[in-house]
Amino acid sequence: MTKRKAKPEPQVGIFWLVKGTLILKGVPLGEAEAGGRYLNAPAHEGYWDQLRRRRAVPPEMDYDEAPRGRVVYDTIANRFHLYADRCILADKKLIEEIIAQLRLAEQRIEIAPDLHYRCTNCLRVNDK
Questions:
Q1: Cβ burial 61-96 (10 Å sphere, 16+ → b, else e)
Q2: How far, in Å, CA of 103 to CA of 86, rounded?
Q3: How far is CA 29 from each of CA 68, 79, 80, rounded to the nearest angstrom?
Q4: What is this structure's pTM?
């Protein structure tokens, strides 16, 4: 008999691009937080505090300064949504890395910007 490897469980997650480095926190779907029709990872702010304590991010930087985004799972449409700052969406390799790390390569994914995920640079440009 041939043993089949179980496929890794897809994940939802939150992520940032901090000084050119992707920081990502994924949660398997079975452990994700339910919010209406969506399965989510924990909030950016709480995880950022953990990153600060571990000195994994600049201590003077707030969680919403760097480009960031989130992947959620829509339980009704049966697909993932990747929402991110335009600074992240502009980098195809970065999107591919997020998809790979969250084990979403074989999943249905909608990728889009979201007004909620705008870094301070993007906000400055939009204010002019």
A1: bebbbbbbbbbbbeeeeeebbbbbbbbbbeeeebbe
A2: 22
A3: 20, 12, 11
A4: 0.88
The pLDDT tens digits for 74-85 are 999 999 999 999
Residue 120, phi then psi, degrees to nearest 5: -60, -35
What's the rounded Cα separation, in Å, for the pair 102 and 40? 13
Residue 1 structure tokens = 């008999």
Backbone angles phi, psi at 76, to 5 degrees: -85, -45
Q: Residue 4: how many CB atoms within 10 A of its CB?
A: 6
| Letter string b/e over residues 13-43, b meaning 16 or more CB atoms within 10 A of that residue's CB | bbbbbbeeeebbbbbeeeebeeeeebbbbee
